[in-house]
């Protein structure tokens, strides 16, 4: 049985959306148990009568969205996120899911769950659809954990993304690309040029060189490597573009001439299905990779559907064993370096 710790008090719609999402998840997956951390009275009031593999662990505090991350983690000892992270650290749960304060969750993952030895900075990793191949996805790492990154950290991001693409996405030899302002080898700033050299020498990955943001949705690679500032900007630009295209089509249906309305009507469903692949409600969350166990961040505005999808994502990641695989790979590299 896979045990997933869920911060029931994190997010804009907590605890209701979190509890409803947990209920949906246990009804979908028969091999998981949910540990809900938060105010017992509030959570209990939302659970219908019945026998569910859900346990409530009462916590008297919660971390607010405007709390300073590290201070909150250190001072609010009985906060739902903190207690849940410590449970993962102790092996009482296999993964942590939260829609709460992003900075606090990153701190909880790094300081409480703990970094994998040899990883300087854990990174946020997520998947986006390959629009040229139906059902295929690619990994984007970092999605916002580290705004500034040195070349070595971009190298770490590549190793993490490569391992995830193998174990979770089933890619036998993931193509790894470095996000840059041009595809030529000479492009980039000092950091990306140094990272290019490191990745070119890395035998454990299939590095294809620099890639441009305009090409990543076309399936040019399976892993896109960037710093957190750039990766987050790319992610939000993609999400915003998808949303606005649908808005434009809907507007054409209402205000255009007859010919425009007919054209928009013909493509609307197909376009909605394609762009729906970017819908945060169905794709789950971003994974903090480089720590000792899965820590997954839901969108702060997560609905019950999003929470259920993220719990399903946590289950898949635990079953894949990718965190253990990464730890072993890094340990092997450190051993080789010592030799």
UniProtKB/TrEMBL annotation:
Pfam family, one: FA_synthesis
Lineage: superkingdom: Bacteria
GO terms for biological process, alphabetical: fatty acid biosynthetic process; phospholipid biosynthetic process
InterPro entries associated with the record: FA_synthesis, Phospholipid_synth_PlsX-like
Keyword field contains Glycoprotein: no
Coiled-coil segments: none
Pathway linked to the protein: Lipid metabolism; phospholipid metabolism
Molecular function terms, GO-annotated: phosphate:acyl-[acyl carrier protein] acyltransferase activity
Entry keyword set: Acyltransferase, Cytoplasm, Lipid biosynthesis, Lipid metabolism, Phospholipid biosynthesis, Phospholipid metabolism, Transferase
Residues passing through the membrane, by range: none
A GO CC term attached to the entry: cytoplasm
Stated family: Belongs to the PlsX family.
Quaternary structure note: Homodimer. Probably interacts with PlsY.
Role, per record: Catalyzes the reversible formation of acyl-phosphate (acyl-PO(4)) from acyl-[acyl-carrier-protein] (acyl-ACP). This enzyme utilizes acyl-ACP as fatty acyl donor, but not acyl-CoA.
Official protein name in the record: Phosphate acyltransferase
Source species: Aerococcus mictus
Chain's gene name: plsX
């Amino acid at each position: 049985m896979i045990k997933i710790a869920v911060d029931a008090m994190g997010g804009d719609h907590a605890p209701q959306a979190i509890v409803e999402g947990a209920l949906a998840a246990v009804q979908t997956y028969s091999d998981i148990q949910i540990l809900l951390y938060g105010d017992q009275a509030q959570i209990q009031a939302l659970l219908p009568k019945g026998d569910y593999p859900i346990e409530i662990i009462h916590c008297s505090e919660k971390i607010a969205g405007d709390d300073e991350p590290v201070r909150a983690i250190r001072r609010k000892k009985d906060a739902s996120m903190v207690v849940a992270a410590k449970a993962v650290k102790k092996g009482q749960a296999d993964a942590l899911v939260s829609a709460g304060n992003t900075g606090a969750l990153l701190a909880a993952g790094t300081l409480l769950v703990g970094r994998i030895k040899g990883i300087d900075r854990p990174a946020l990793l997520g998947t986006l659809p390959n629009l040229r191949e139906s059902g295929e996805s690619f990994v984007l790492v970092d999605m916002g954990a580290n705004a500034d990154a040195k070349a070595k950290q971009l190298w770490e991001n590549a190793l993490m993304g490569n391992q995830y693409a193998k174990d979770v996405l089933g890619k036998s030899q993931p193509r790894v690309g470095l996000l840059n302002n041009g595809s030529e080898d000479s492009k980039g700033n000092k950091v990306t040029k140094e990272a290019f050299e490191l990745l070119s020498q890395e035998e454990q990955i299939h590095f294809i060189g620099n890639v441009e943001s305009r090409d990543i949705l076309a399936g040019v690679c399976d892993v896109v490597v960037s710093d957190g500032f750039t990766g987050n900007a790319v992610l939000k630009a993609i999400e915003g573009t998808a949303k606005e295209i649908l808005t434009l089509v809907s507007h054409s249906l209402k205000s255009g001439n007859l010919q425009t309305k007919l054209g928009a009507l013909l493509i609307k469903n197909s376009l909605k299905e394609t762009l729906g692949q970017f819908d945060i409600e169905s794709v789950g969350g971003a994974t903090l990779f480089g720590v000792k166990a899965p820590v997954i961040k839901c969108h702060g505005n997560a609905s019950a559907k999003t929470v259920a999808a993220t719990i399903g994502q946590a289950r898949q990641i635990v079953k894949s064993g990718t965190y253990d695989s990464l730890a072993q790979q890094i340990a092997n590299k450190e051993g080789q370096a010592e030799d």
